[in-house]
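Note to self: the last two entries modelled the partners one at a time, which told us nothing about the interface. This time every component goes in together.
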Amino acid sequence: MNDKTRQAQAVRPDSSLGTRERIVRTTSRLMQRQGYEGTAIKQISREAGVALSSVYHFFPSGKQELAVEAVRHADQEFAGILREALAGEDDPADAMIACTRILATHLRDSDWLDGCPITATALETAGRVPEIQQAVTRSFEHWRGLVTEHLRHTGIAENDVLDLAHTVINTLEGAELAAQVSRSDKPLEIAGRHLARLINTYR
Amino acid sequence: MNDKTRQAQAVRPDSSLGTRERIVRTTSRLMQRQGYEGTAIKQISREAGVALSSVYHFFPSGKQELAVEAVRHADQEFAGILREALAGEDDPADAMIACTRILATHLRDSDWLDGCPITATALETAGRVPEIQQAVTRSFEHWRGLVTEHLRHTGIAENDVLDLAHTVINTLEGAELAAQVSRSDKPLEIAGRHLARLINTYR
DNA sequence: GTCTATACCCCGATAGAC
DNA sequence: GTCTATCGGGGTATAGAC
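The predicted structure of the combined assembly is written out below.
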């Protein structure tokens, strides 16, 4: 009756990495799929292939500290995906389509398991674990900044750019959630078209 | 060091309700704030003011069955909020503003704790607990249907209405998440304006 | 239906040998 | 740094009296 037994897909990262890095990556992936509360340190040590004591060696103050580090890692990972999608398209409307495409691909390739890596953790800890909430807030700001930067060279007024960056990130978040739950890329495909259309009304 | 001790705001529902209803409502509220994994049945019984055995009396097969019922309750609750916001405005663009306003009010009044009641649970259980995932999927479809219905009497083509309903719900989800994490109604305010603008491009 | 008590397990975290 | 072993507590779930 333990839900953990439903865990299907392996998570073990490249064994050539250092121990600390393997722990962080494994934690990040598990929190992406199961959230903060649903991820046990024992499971992390098992899936990372390291001893439990090693986890506490690198993260002496425990789970919370490790979670913050995992969110920071996820921040960089997701930023890389965004940057890649945005860099390939000069036109901002095309860039939106590219973003939703790449997110859909990642989702499908992981059998709809790997959506935004921090959303589950963000919701579980909002208002209850300030250290994690702060790391989450910084990630969202970081990602929004990437979109802002991309929209800035398009002739759109600065105020509109800042507002658009909010809605771009938030709509991507919502559409990815819907795609994950419904196991379909349709929500993302629609979101891409609508974001492109919305941006074009400002040009 | 127990995160549960950070639990600040009380949750206890009206004591005039039947026991079963109190259990479901308490579960729904706790899962909204802490997710599925973060919510213990012992905490539910404590906050609902009922014996642990009563929980198992009404939900003999345990936590999962109770969670499905809680998602169904949250479905109705959130649908009520949406319906209320949509019913007050004939113009669909105005209705978007009304939706984001009412969501922002609920969030602020709960000290930014009560966002979408099922998102955290949805993400934790996606791909791992099919029974819950199915209840979540139905809720999203239900809410999307309410938006579809509202947009249908506006002269917008049926295909566009169906697509718009997706993005309306998904953008509301994403903006509410961002508002909750950043403790600000700004993401929702922006989302309202952008959804109104997007809809107006179809008229 | 609700009470108390408890079985059994996994949780986060720690200790001390090596 | 990693090993094994373990502590105290809380997790889900159950039993049986009332």
